[in-house]
Specification:
Distance between the termini: 54 Å
Number of helices: 12
CATH class of the largest domain: Alpha Beta
Number of domains: 2
CATH architecture of the largest domain: Alpha-Beta Barrel
Shape: globular
Largest sheet: 8 strands, parallel, barrel
Radius of gyration: 21 Å
Order of helices and strands: HEEEEHHEHEHEHEHEHEHEHHEH
CATH topology of the largest domain: TIM Barrel
Strand order of the largest sheet: 5-6-7-8-9-10-11-12
Number of strands: 12
């Protein structure tokens, strides 16, 4: 097993040899007004994220036991203290991310300033093209713009420091003066993090969870920015060479918890951390599907959860679609994430994802209209709503 590199293998193995408890919220309910009729598990302290039950999972010495329990029983005082500790982390309100309240699903638009990213490498390599693309994503509804200069697609080669900086820093500097969206630097290098912050980046997004560069942890602590910790098994050159897990969901959870604890020891509080289970990074098709189907378990880590499934190869492996034709599958994954309480979706297609979320969110919040009203007072995402467009 290789998680975050060889140096984390021993730590990971020692963790899973002990008894571990996990809680996966199940049975999401529509928001309820007034006194709630049934006990629920409110993810991140939000009454609009209620779940009626949970799967309680115990793992010890390689053996896994699962049981489904109603929220009423979990809150009735009979659950073990270890379960209550996880429930407390699930229910803990999440801090704002660079000033953005996580009171609804937030969209992170992808800006690849690369010639070789798996989906959109090339068109935005030039500075002006990247800036125009980023501003377009903001107009479409992106809350965060994630700017990266090094492709981390499977089997990609690492990029030199100065070349990466030459790609991303001019884009970040220009956008810092022209956009209200928060700017995220997608990098594994401590020096790129430092220089990007000086140019105006608000968030660090590291696919290695601050393990690739020995200085990343120190620099991230000094900068004081929110950090996305993404799980990856191996590095991009090797991560898709027969990835394997004992239980992919629990293994990824344990690895991310180990990184959270390492960050806390280094002076980065968990309130500044966002976890990403790393779809497509050291995972085969069934691994990715298992994670997407169990995303709500990661709320037990006590941090905001980010999902980056947009246009990824697992959609192609499942359906046969090439990257340009994976928008429907990307939206399906995004809605599965939203239904499980994911706070941030990293997407290439902001407009289409935002429209899908608008319909899903409105339907979840909808009530029967009062007689004499037309029911058109709902808040909405994106472009102004067209009125009177008929039934076609």
């Amino acid at each position: 097993m290789q998680v975050f590199g060889d140096r984390w293998v021993a730590a990971w193995n020692s963790r899973v040899s002990r008894r571990r408890i996990y809680v996966r919220p199940l049975a999401r309910l529509a928001p309820m007004e007034g006194p709630q009729q049934v006990p629920t598990i409110a993810v991140a302290g939000r009454t609009d994220l209620p779940f009626a039950a949970a799967e309680v999972i115990e793992r010890e010495d390689g053996k896994v036991r699962r049981r489904q329990v109603t929220a009423a029983k979990l809150q009735g005082g009979t659950a073990a203290g270890s379960v209550q500790a996880v429930l407390a982390r699930i229910g803990r309100p999440r801090a704002d991310v660079a000033g953005i309240a996580l009171d609804r699903v937030r969209l992170m638009g992808v800006v690849n300033v690369t010639p070789d990213s798996f989906y959109d490498g090339g068109p935005y390599l030039a500075k002006d093209a990247a800036i125009a693309h980023a501003l377009r994503l903001e107009q479409e509804g992106a809350d965060i713009l994630d700017i990266g200069g090094e492709s981390t697609r499977p089997w990609s080669e690492p990029l030199g420091l100065e070349e990466e900086c030459g790609r991303v820093l001019p884009v970040i500097a220009a956008l810092a003066k022209r956009t209200r969206a928060r700017l995220s630097i997608d990098t594994r290098k401590a020096e790129v993090m430092r220089r990007a912050a000086l140019e105006g980046a608000h968030i660090i997004n590291d696919v290695s969870a601050l393990t690739h560069d020995p200085r990343s942890m120190e620099v991230a602590a000094e900068l004081g920015l929110p950090v996305v910790l993404m799980h990856s098994q191996g590095d991009p050159r090797t991560m898709q060479d027969a990835p394997s897990y004992d239980d992919v969901v629990l293994d990824v959870y344990d690895a991310l918890q180990a990184r959270i604890e390492a960050c806390e020891r280094a002076g980065i509080p968990s309130a500044r951390l966002i976890v990403d289970p790393g779809i497509g990074f050291g995972k085969a098709l069934q691994h990715n599907l298992a994670i997407v189907g169990a995303l709500s378990i990661f709320h037990g880590l006590g941090c905001a959860v980010l999902l980056g499934a947009s246009r990824k190869s697992f959609i192609g492996h499942l359906t046969g679609a090439e990257a340009p034709d994976r928008l429907p599958g990307s939206i399906a994954a995004a809605l599965l994430g939203a239904a499980q309480g994911v706070q941030i979706l990293r997407v290439h297609d902001v407009h289409a994802t935002g429209q899908a979320l608008a319909v899903w969110e409105a339907a979840m919040a909808a009530k029967s209209p009062v007689a004499g009203t037309d029911g058109t007072s709902l808040q909405h995402r994106g472009s102004p709503r067209a009125e009177g467009d008929g039934a076609a």
